[in-house]
Amino acid sequence: MSSKPSNEHLQAIEAAVGKLGPPVEFNYEDRETMLYNIGIGAKSDELKYVFEGDDEFQVIPTFGVLPGYTADMPFSFDSIIPNFNPMMLLHGEQYLEIRKYPIPTSANLISKSSLIEVVDKGNAAVVKTGLTVTHAETGEDIFYNEMTAFVRGSGGFDGNRVPADRGAATAANKPPARAPDFVQESATDIHQAAIFRLSGDYNPLHIDPSFAKMGGFKKPILHGLCTFGVAGKAIYDKYGAYKNVKVRFAGTVDPGQTIVTEMWREGKKIIFQCKVKETGKMAIVGAAAELVGDITSKI
Predict the structure, then answer these.
(1) 296 pLDDT above the threshold of 50
(2) pTM (2 decimals)?
(3) Which of 111, 146, 163 is the last residue of a domain?
């Protein structure tokens, strides 16, 4: 016989887990595709990413995280964790599944979000949410995301201390004890955060120095999902399409710094990590992408 939650936060968590938020439209055209591709480093000579008239014009798969910016969550952070302060929230992990290839370069999509779990870390809370994105006309799944938020100062509510194991979405992905099979250096532009934010993440700490300082940073930093996209592009360019990709954010990147993506191939799995060339500090760890192989499905 199960017991009822013992406090308001646990009650709110129990009520919210698995509940779908209202459907939210996410509509985009070729312009948004090109803007995203450029925002994660596509260059003017890569016509398949930056010119809508190219025969191979396409979306870099990590585009699938963008519907999360407009998702309507079926809960409030204030209700599920104590002492919530948005300036204390860090993007801890991101998992993306690409469920349909080729990804349309323009489409009307529908996204629905849900709360997966909340973990009590004592001095912090870990909030994990899911987002399913479908094609509005066909109803087919296009993307699925899981986002992990680490919220400092919001633990200690007698919640679950052990996160669930959900396979690829939570795997640790330790690199093999050998030199990387491939290394890609991607120099970011000093204006890259200003470009990337136009794809939907308008958090001012990425553009306004005063907000960056409020968040504990000396100056505006590059979006974590921009670093994620830079790594995703490096894998896509080298190994082709992947059906899922998962990362854990370990540190920040300043606009203008160089992202070094180190990759190890283990069959259809690419284990990778990213570091900042100028400092040697890690930006992404515990990361992997699972390759698709031949793509036959079409929208």
Answers:
(1) no
(2) 0.94
(3) 163
Q: What is the pLDDT of residue 87?
A: 81
First to last CA, the chain: 47
What CATH number should be reported for the domain holding residue 88?
3.10.129.10
Catalytic residue among 9, 91, 206, 223: 206
Q: Is 224 a catalytic residue?
A: yes
Mark whether 91 is an active-site residue.
no
Decide which of 163, 191, 210 is a domain's last residue. Answer: 163
> From CA 222, how far away is CA 77, in angstroms rounded?
24
Look up residue 228 and give its two tokens.
């994620």
What is the pLDDT, as a whole number, of residue 282? 98
For 110, how many CA atoms within 13 A lie in the half-sphere containing its CB?
12
**Over 80: is that where the pLDDT of 299 sits?**
no
> Which pLDDT score is estimated for 294?
56
Domain that holds residue 292: 171-298
**pLDDT over 90 for what percent of the chain?**
91
Q: Give the C-alpha separation, 102 to 241, whole Å.
A: 9
Q: What is the pLDDT of residue 6?
A: 67
Q: Count of residues for the chain?
A: 299
pLDDT per position as a tens digit, 235-251: 999 999 999 999 999 99
Strand partners, 269: 266, 290
DSSP H or E run through 104: none
| CA dist., res. 104 & res. 56, Å (int) | 12
Is 221 assigned a catalytic role?
yes
Q: Which helix (H) or strand (E) holds 297?
A: none
Catalytic residue among 41, 64, 159, 224: 224
| Known active-site residue 201 | yes
Which residue blocks in the chain are alpha helix, DSSP H? 8-16, 30-39, 47-50, 77-80, 192-196, 209-214, 224-239
Residue 1 neighbours by CB under 8 Å, 6+ apart = none
Strand partners, 291: 242
Domain count for the chain: 2
- Is the N-terminal amide bond of 175 cis, ω within 30° of 0? no
